[in-house]
Amino acid sequence: MKTAQVIMDTGTHAAALAAKYARVDVIPGYPITPQTSIMEAIASMVENGELNARFIPVEGEHSVLAAAVAAAAAGARVFTATSANGLLYMHEVLHMASGGRLPVVMCNVNRGVFAPWTLWADHQDSFAQRDTGWIQYHCSSNQEVFNTILQAFRVAEQINIPVMVNFDGFAISHCLMPLTLPPQEDIDLFLPPHEPEWRLDPSNPSSFSNVTMAAEYASFRGMLSDDIMASIPLVKQAAQEYKDITGMWDGDTIDTYRLEDAEVVAFAVNSMAAELRLSVDILREQGIKAGLLRPRLYLPFPTEDIIRALPKNAQIMVLDRNLNFGHPGGILASELKSALFGRRNDITVKNRVIGIGGIDLTRRFMAAEIRAMMDE
Amino acid sequence: MLELRINGFGGQGSVTLAHLLAQAALENGEQGQALPFFGVERRGAPVRAAVRISPTTIHAHSQCELPDYLVVMSEKLTQAAVSEGINDIGTVIVNAPQTVNVSKYPTWQVDADTIAREAGLFSADGPTINIPLFGAVCRVLNIPQNIMEQTILNKWPGHNGERNLGAAGKAYNEVRICAPQL
What we know:
heterodimer, A: about 375 residues, alpha/beta, Rossmann fold, five-stranded mixed beta sheet, 13 helices, B: about 180 residues, Pyruvate-ferredoxin Oxidoreductase, domain 3, seven-stranded mixed beta sheet, two-stranded antiparallel ribbon, 6 helices, about 35% helix, globular
């Protein structure tokens, strides 16, 4: 039996390797800034024969996702990657992929959006796609990026909804860390070949996504909304079965740290949530019963799992790396308050916006922020 | 968890040095992380990179604000690098032609420029100082010489690896702690 292999690699290469392990068929890409080296790594894997797939370079991100939609409609397993303004440029086609019920998996490397220009970690880009009908994971380590892309294909193909796998620019994308690669046989067991229920086939012509009258349209949109909610058990099942096969676990819809007896709970996503484990340790040393709750799934929002996990009477400190324009504070806090309203009146939610545009978030700084929030 | 920060100028190979150190940590049976800070990517501009080494999983993803070890690629940057932050009980490693002193911090010195020149290691930006500095930092961190050598050979199999081994080995043996300044 083959054993897992440990290598040193960056977050972007972890994403490219996951696409290879998923045995993807088609990868459309626009490999220019703000894109990261994910596309470059995949293009060389295709070039040197490591990955038997079709790499399609196109002239912009809108066309990237259009090509992904077409390839998925033809029954291919499709992967692509983007970042920041590239994701914003895809916005229209994001709706087409979800409304067309096409199980594309796409990485988005979270960076601040233009204007003004920036390149560093910030979560405005992915949260701004909340209403496009995509399932969204947010990852906090290189290993989780690799593991989640494989789980994302499982979920996407089970329920015919596209999945976005998000992780931070630089803090993860350009960070070199140990990466465990399970044997390919184990991944093949976890993720069998894609068998779509239907596909566009020139030998058996059919049309796709015609004009619908109101009643049909409403029915399709309602089914999409219901199925997004119904993906939660599939997300959990994928995480559990991935763990049974590979031994690796990053949480399912949520991930927690020292939460059971916590009175003060940090709530955040992505790499800052990894760093927050260290802030929790600092606060515990200061005698504060701190813990962490990280939603791994942003969409669908894991309301029930959050409600079950939060200790009684806890103060939740939501740290948002984004702005909720038109409202004070950030987007995660707004989502959390909406989820808790009328359900957990014992919980206090406090919020700060930090780390915009990649401002460095150290364990000491975030521990101090949480202490300051306790006095508010 | 040990934290290092490398301060250098763009083109001096700070990112490769960070990668080598993280790879040496893994080779040595520990966890390693290299997290360069990417700024405007201009040659000659000040650059920095974080390196972490730990027996257990590394969760930190920030730059090292108060490193245990401060690696200074060019003597000219020493004061600026120290002012940027270092652990109170931190150690400094400087590429300098002779003994340097940084008030209150134990300081190691290695002449990486001369070692690289003598080994014939040059890039478009001058002598390839990151190779000797890799050897010197491994010595200061007590990473065994054979682990240091294996890391280089894994990255550059063949002739280039052999040339790099000589320079890194020389620095490993020549890096010296400077007398403390009172």
